[in-house]
Amino acid sequence: MSGTQDFINQNKDRFLEELLDLLRIPSVSADSRHKADVKRAAEFIQTKLTEAGADRAEIYETKGHPIVYGEKIVGSNVPTVLVYGHYDVQPPDPLDLWDSPPFEPVIKKTDIHPEGAIFARGSCDDKGQMYMHVKAFEAMMAGGELACNIKFIIEGEEEVGSDNLEIFLEEHKEMLANDIVLVSDTGIIANDVPSITVGLRGLSYLEIEVTGPNRDLHSGLYGGAVPNPINVLSEMIASLKDEKKRINIPGFYNDVLELTAEERAAMARAPFSLEAYKKSIGLSDVEGEEGYSTMERASIRPTLDVNGIWGGYTGEGAKTVIASKAYAKISMRLVPHQDPDKITELFQNHFESIAPPSVKVKVTPHHGALPAVTPTDSPAYLAAAKAMKETFGKEPVPFRGGGSIPIVALFEQILDSKTVLMGFGLDSDAIHSPNEHYGLFNYYKGIETIPLFYKYFAEMK
Amino acid sequence: MSGTQDFINQNKDRFLEELLDLLRIPSVSADSRHKADVKRAAEFIQTKLTEAGADRAEIYETKGHPIVYGEKIVGSNVPTVLVYGHYDVQPPDPLDLWDSPPFEPVIKKTDIHPEGAIFARGSCDDKGQMYMHVKAFEAMMAGGELACNIKFIIEGEEEVGSDNLEIFLEEHKEMLANDIVLVSDTGIIANDVPSITVGLRGLSYLEIEVTGPNRDLHSGLYGGAVPNPINVLSEMIASLKDEKKRINIPGFYNDVLELTAEERAAMARAPFSLEAYKKSIGLSDVEGEEGYSTMERASIRPTLDVNGIWGGYTGEGAKTVIASKAYAKISMRLVPHQDPDKITELFQNHFESIAPPSVKVKVTPHHGALPAVTPTDSPAYLAAAKAMKETFGKEPVPFRGGGSIPIVALFEQILDSKTVLMGFGLDSDAIHSPNEHYGLFNYYKGIETIPLFYKYFAEMK
């Protein structure tokens, strides 16, 4: 595909500049104050799809943030690829931990990225990875080498649960019909260890409110005699795991798919250094469910984490107060065969059942995601593997990821479509964290690899 | 004391207006942004003491907030009363729970205060109660009936531990020499049940920082495999109490003064309705240390309460993050014979010892206070009791309070002075809480009662 690859080589700087422009738009879907910014990001994608040569590119309004759809149909005799991505990003806080402003991208060299990485919220998740597809599309059009029909569905609510995507899929099954869904929202093991994600954990996310007294009280006058909602919440959270770090919710593990000894042995062969892992996140020691390795705990096992907690006086100095309310955000990562709705209900019932009579507890489900496993023998997987082998010079490793991409299950249910997760990020890219970044190596490698996927997928179908 | 009481009756409106002016100054000692406001409050007191007729009234700078000292010496043949109070206030947050702005005082009627109460931060604690003494002093001067030498020491750091007061006392023992310290920073049981506080709990206040990974992490990629500092902090907090709600810190109860059956029986005779108590703070049930009554839990028993907790994502919506750090503010109320420094050390050592190896824990002591018990047979107590009996028409009940007034122990240690705690607030005044208020009945009753204390104290000495 010399025409396509030449075009990529000639336009690398512009491809980067355009991404930086996109990263300057603070499209934080969780924060209603950014609604207009989210819209601007959608319009940016629409424009670029049109410029790249789409037959049509439109913005579909939803009850929440808009969805961008674009397509280029080259013929009925070739397969159709549906590219999914999202242009919304996680909230940037805590802001004070960023070395540079989250929405003012800068390029800096790191040990892992000697040729430089783009530091900005969304640089990897998912603006950078999504935009690779827009540029690969432009290159294939310029090179006259687009081997498949291509459809883009780029949403703005992935970081808040994709609530309106489901409705959109239901309403546009026809338009979205495809032979494979292609997504770059996952990672590779390392820049010299290409991999393709073949499994994803699901998610159940809830918010907790514990109410004790009807107002904040003086801890001197009332301390010891009334329920303190922060102490109570802490005790309830602590009771959710046993001493083996297993989750204490009745029925939680009922549907968990246990891997065979062979599967676990295969996983253990993937390159992994516990020392390097601990060093990269500054830990003296790891912890997790007894009887499982760190890689297993982070991929094939379900989890429960408190993502946020707050209550009482959190300002400067000391305030001797007993708060009226305490809050927590809690999420559980789920593995194949666990149903997020069922787990959410189990959690809700259990959490309410363990509340002491002296407090009121409110549990509000935020959103969920089904776990997913993708096949490794499909034409799509084989095409992705062949494309990566060509650009990385190495056969990619099939890998079970720990994160959730709710839409994989949605595409399966509603469109009856399989998904191939050909991502190019790294765990160390700090997505969802301060100083999120994305390697220039990874950005360009993605743009170069994607056209090859189309070529080989067309050949294999 | 007709002259004094007439003057009070003729100047009630002005006495109120002056207090409202003082309450409009946001003298929040814990918040460095309010340093200038705290200074303004000190100058306000200095001015009013001078206007009331003090021989001298001065502002003494300290490393922190200033201390106001004023005095009127009427002769060497009369006893000297040292009035202590504080002009600093607690932080007002959570602001959204106030019905009116905390520093814009309004007068509203309540069930308990049919003649109206002043709603503002500091209205009771302690601007309102402290200012009663300034006005009582003015009235005694106007009436020519000041029966004792009077010295005022009004500080601006009571809500942050009175760190600089100790140094000041050490440096001015001579100037502060007295026969009794008189303080109104406590309450009465009810407006028709006068009482005098004869016991106070001590305090140990600490701040906790738990660090897991060196940065916020994506809970999908890392969840289950790394220590989550919020989960860990919750588990550590939960472990601090056993199922009987006793505090699990080795040695914590060693020095606790246990009351005799007679003393407990005497306490139980004080009027108290558990139903009214629960209703007043909207609780369906109370909780606390097994084997003790609600009144005992709130006064003669030590406690441990989390006053604030925070970590991770606390904004709108959902963020699937594992925080790098989690924080808590924890205070323990102490009873006679418990030493705050020793308890602080016990807590620190225990808390560090129970931290899992995978996290780092930092414990920072904020401030402490010694518990105190005051005698009921001293001339000062008897003078206060006689004064209250005259204005309330009822013998006051000796009462063990739950709060801490660190300076009571300081005056004992450094000035070798006894303190009488003749306060006029109510538990329901919501001090340290939104909508703090102070009854007009209580404000005026205090101003009327204080001059009688001077009269009877002079007679009894």
From TrEMBL, chains A, B:
Cross-referenced Pfam families: M20_dimer (PF07687), Peptidase_M20 (PF01546)
Listed GO biological process terms: proteolysis
UniProtKB keywords: Hydrolase, Metal-binding, Protease
Domain of life: Bacteria
InterPro entries noted in UniProt: Cyt/Met_Dipeptidase (IPR051458), Peptidase_M20 (IPR002933), Peptidase_M20_dimer (IPR011650)
Domain Peptidase M20 dimerisation: 199-357
Molecular functions per Gene Ontology: metal ion binding; peptidase activity
CDD domains: M20_dipept_like
Keyword Hydrolase: yes
SUPFAM superfamilies: Zn-dependent exopeptidases
Secreted in keyword set: no
PANTHER family the UniProt entry points to: BETA-ALA-HIS DIPEPTIDASE (PTHR43270), SUCCINYL-DIAMINOPIMELATE DESUCCINYLASE (PTHR43270:SF12)
Name of the molecule in the record: Peptidase dimerization domain protein
Organism: Roseivirga spongicola
Organism lineage: Bacteria, Pseudomonadati, Bacteroidota, Cytophagia, Cytophagales
